[in-house]
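Researcher: I'm preparing a figure for a lab meeting and need a structural model of a single chain. I don't have an experimental structure, so a prediction will have to do for now. The sequence is pasted below. Please return the structure as tokens so I can convert it later.
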Amino acid sequence: MIGEVKKSTVKYNERLVGYLAVVEEGIAFQYDAEWLKDGFSISPFSLPLKGDVFLGRKDNFDGLFGVFHDPLPDGWGELLVSRMCAKKGVNYEKLNPLTKLSLIGGNGLGGLNYEPTQAVETGDPHFDLEELAEEANAVLNDTEKTVGDLDGLYLAGGSSGGARPKAHLKIDGEEWIVKFPCRIDPPDVGLMEYHANAVAKGCGLDVNEFKLFPSKKCSGYFGAKRFDRIEGRRVHVVSLSSLLETTHRIPNLDYVHLFQVIENICADKRDLYEAFARMTFNVFYGNKDDHGKNISFLYDEALKGYRLSPAYDLTRTPGKPEHEMTVLGKTNPTETDLLELAAYVGLAKAKAGSIVERIKSTIKKP
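Model: Understood. Here is the structure written out token by token.
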């Protein structure tokens, strides 16, 4: 049975951050008094570190602030949680946002967790990637096989985002996200993403640890180590879209917005050049799935500030006619546009030019 939740506490590594509540005007959030003493803003533009009661917009993110919407399942994860709710006779779409967060609890992406929780604990650590891939394919194709396997799939991927099926797995004591092909993917999609990450790393980008897990049925399953879990501790992460309280489903951001956010919240301004390198890579490599939820910031407790998260979801997207994020308004930018943006945001001309040449020459290598 799934109970309705109207009040929720927000925690970070067992420490109380604040409170969420459904009120007549919408959904409200307030920081806890102890967190205000030496905590940090979990969303610097929308939720500054003040004792105010903050009210989310009813017409945006179901009334939640973006930082609380980030961990909710999207795409594949939403499909799984919707079907699990349906098995219990509950329409997931009609649940209020705090009830949805209670179904995720501490299993979601990022560092925050929510109580009370109605989340199912993570399942058996033993897994078989071939079986998970087969079961995911069965769910996507609505075959009868899904009846007995939905519970296990939900445990592995019920908090996932993105369109492709994926599983959150603990491998040799470390947490990974492993992706499987969906119906429209070529069978070698895992190898393609692995190659994209290898090229990005060769270009000097900050790419998280990645691996191609072997398969007897395809070229392999792409996996990325989670950067929101470090040595057993959770790491606070918030996406660019959520920081700016805007959806990633409708292209509405320019890379200029990314540089403006970095200038305002990042502790290390070298992130400006890292962002320029990622933008350049996306343009030259043909990764047009560069929307605001595919760029994130994490809170670095050592720096006592935010920094760009490692790059993720890197791949070629030949089926997309335009980039999700524009470059000075251009949906299919050129090298000239990249350098014009560098000048516009105040990057050193020589350094920006060197980054462009390095990435161009690396991508062209056989």
